[in-house]
Task: structure prediction
Amino acid sequence: MSSVQPCSTGDDDRRPPLNDLLAIARHGLGLKLKRLPSWLFYDERGSALFEQICEQPEYYLTRCEVALMDEHAASVADSLGSEVRLVEYGSGSGLKTRMLLREMHDPVSYVPVEISPAPLNESVRRLALEFPQLPLQPLCADFSKPLRLPIPPRAPRRTVLYFPGSTIGNFEARDAVDLLRKMRNEMGDAGGILIGVDLKKDVAQMEAAYNDRAGVTAEFTLNMLARLNREIGSDFDLSAFRHHARYNPMAGRIETHIVSSREQQVKIGSSKVGFRAEEVIQVEYSCKYSLEDFAALAEKAGLAVMRTWLDPQRMFSVQYLVRASAVAR
Ligand code: AVI
Result:
């Protein structure tokens, strides 16, 4: 029998309520260098577009991570050990999660952490069908904030936090260290972090992944403006803005901007925001790492890389991090 606990919200879901969107947009668009937070991409339409991005031939990240798990899931599961409580940052209905769960040894529970209840419930519904014996303990919360994890059904040997997809790349270096430090506290002394990290490679290949020929990424980017129009009543003319994603070699990241094609004014609440022709809104960073870069980042959070797995084309990595003090002994 499957054991699915109702979606718990803990006390930790502190993302601003929707009526704060106006304040967020006003603040970001009032800055000298305009910027909007990348989580604004993920309304229902944006989440569906992201799924489509993952299927584009140029977006190698998902394909490579799946290929990696196809080859190494059993070895990954061996490294995590038996009687693990697996906590996933994200809704985890995906193929990679299922590939890992299939290989895990006597897992204690699976805890997907997701801010939106609908994808969380859907992922749990699907997993319960494939893993009827596995206790599922969904947690509806913002994983970037401190979490109160549900009490596991039995004592696990360790808690492993699973963070696939290179979502860590969407955090600037300082924020990535803060998030890893928070994860280190949540996993406890014996725990670990299993994390997907995209690697630096040929610039043309990285840029193509964020500029697919079918234009899905461009639509995903501009959907942020459509969302603001719908939810705060702004009047962005989507045809007067365009998507732009380029690799910044100094910063080691793809930087995505929304570019104003002409001089224009946009209504945000009761005021107007002016745009010069070619002025940009910075909307996303997707940081790329060498294995050495990422080990150094992890070290700043008090973590050490215990094992690394690569896909056959060595484009993407999955890394198992533990407390630095645990390997120093
Ligand atoms: C979710 N995240 C890892 C994606 C990335 O590659 O940075 C989001 C994305 N943005 C554009 N394409 C995909």
